[in-house]
Design goal:
Order of helices and strands: HHHHHHHHHHHEEEHEEEEHHEEEE
Distance between the termini: 58 Å
Shape: elongated
Radius of gyration: 26 Å
Structural class: alpha+beta
Length: 432
């Protein structure tokens, strides 16, 4: 009787801890909404799935909400969402011992999600944009200084950097009149673009201002294009008995029933371990570029300024060995716990020992999932264009085109105010 109660308690604990966060199906539906430029539907879908994130992934919930916007679809709650996400991340520095132990027993989902280095940097970037949208330039400058401090520490501690964010900070300091800070960021941006040349991102060109341009202002288009890759879980199961070995493999795209069958198979074999590892799932992007049109005249094209997909993949490659080792240790731990429990139960009843072995093997196999959490609503890339425009109100048309120069979509920003000697930002989000 004690053994049955212990099994029941173990199953409850494992199943509670084994929550796997937002599903692949949910993510693909949100991406589909964004590809259709239906940001309201994407927002509603995320809000309706708040419970799917849970307390451990609350920061990701607020971040996914914050990127459902552009200049025409900006939400005044965006800054609130970003602040909540940042505050939640700050609270995670106090690591819970119980959560760490649970990660060895169940899976990595038992620990709260800590943003990757580039994700935190872009959290601060999006906060700057939100302040600019709310016409709070002092607030934007506070976040700019936080961003530069973070990038400096990141570079000194790890050698990593973000060329586009250094470039963007340089623009912000220039607008503030802090030319010394602007120059430092500009040099950092040049160095970072050179260091990460294999990302194919480039420093966006700046038009030279002459005396004839005294009545013009700078228009900067930030085009957030595509969808950053996300992760899926691939599970490899190795089971054996006196007749030999069985090797099974499932993916995050397979049905729950298939996963249940594999778990039952592992239990039936008696000796089995399951190892789940994350794999990158890319989201195809049709858009190859964008151009700005004013008065039916093409006045500029965007440059690939930031390749976020590159940073995502590089970070994944750097962490993969650690993930592999952690998964192997967890699988071995589960196996040893199962065998010890079987041995203890067998001392009282041999049949009960067999039941315990089958039950725990199936339970632990079912609970094994790779950590596939990420800020999946980020763009794959940021493209930028800088052009000089006469002071006054203008209708700004932006065309998106593919690799064959075929126009896929276009967006018109009505009555954009350009002030001489000032910089005006426009933001466009595309996911097709």
């Amino acid at each position: 009787m004690k053994t049955v109660k212990a099994l029941a308690l173990t199953s409850v604990v494992v199943l509670i801890c084994a929550c796997a966060g937002p599903s692949v199906r949910y993510k693909t539906k949100v991406i589909g909404d964004m590809q259709s430029r239906n940001f309201e539907a994407a927002q509603a879908r995320i809000k309706n799935n708040k419970k799917g994130y849970g307390r451990r992934d609350a920061s990701l919930y607020f971040l996914d909400l914050s990127t459902q916007q552009d200049y025409l679809n900006y939400s005044t709650s965006t800054l609130t969402h970003l602040n909540k996400a940042e505050n939640l991340q700050a609270d995670l520095y106090a690591r819970s011992i119980s959560q760490k132990f649970a990660s060895f027993m169940v899976n990595d989902y038992t620990e709260p999600y800590r943003l990757k280095y580039f994700e935190f940097a872009y959290l601060l970037f999006y906060k700057i944009i939100a302040y600019l949208q709310e016409k709070d330039f002092p607030g934007a400058m506070v976040e700019t200084r936080k961003l530069v401090f973070y990038l400096d520490k990141l570079r000194n501690d790890t050698g990593k950097d973000d060329p586009f964010l250094q470039h963007f900070a340089s623009q912000m300091f220039t607008m503030r009149g802090a030319y010394s800070d602007a120059n430092i960021c500009y040099i950092n941006a040049q160095n970072a673009y050179s260091k990460f040349a294999d990302s194919y991102a480039q420093m966006p060109p700046q038009p030279k201002i002459t005396e004839e341009d005294h009545n013009k202002g700078m228009l900067t288009l930030e085009h957030f294009n595509g969808m950053i890759p996300f992760l899926i879980s691939k599970k490899t199961m190795v089971a054996w008995n006196k007749f030999g070995f069985a090797l099974g493999r499932t993916s995050g795209y397979e049905t729950i029933s298939q996963n249940t069958i594999n778990s039952a198979l592992a239990g039936a074999y008696g000796n089995a371990i399951a190892v789940a590892l994350p794999e990158i799932q890319t989201v195809p992007t049709k858009v190859a570029g964008s151009r700005i049109i004013i008065n039916d005249k093409i006045v500029g094209e965007t440059t690939l300024a930031s390749n976020l997909s590159y940073f995502f993949k590089n970070n994944f490659d750097e962490e993969y060995n650690k993930i592999l080792i952690s998964s192997a240790i967890r699988a071995a731990t589960k196996f040893l716990i199962t065998k010890q429990a079987q041995k203890a139960a067998s001392n009282q009843d041999e049949n009960m020992g067999l039941i315990v072995d089958i039950f725990l093997t199936a339970l632990f196999t079912s609970a094994e999932n790779a950590d596939t959490r990420s800020w999946f609503t980020l763009p794959a890339e940021i493209r930028e264009a800088n052009i000089l425009v006469e002071e006054g109100k203008h209708d700004i048309k932006v065309q998106l085109f593919d690799s064959n120069n075929k126009v896929l979509d276009e967006q018109t920003f009505k009555d954009v105010q350009i002030n001489k000697g000032r910089r005006t930002y426009l933001y466009l989000r595309s996911a097709i």
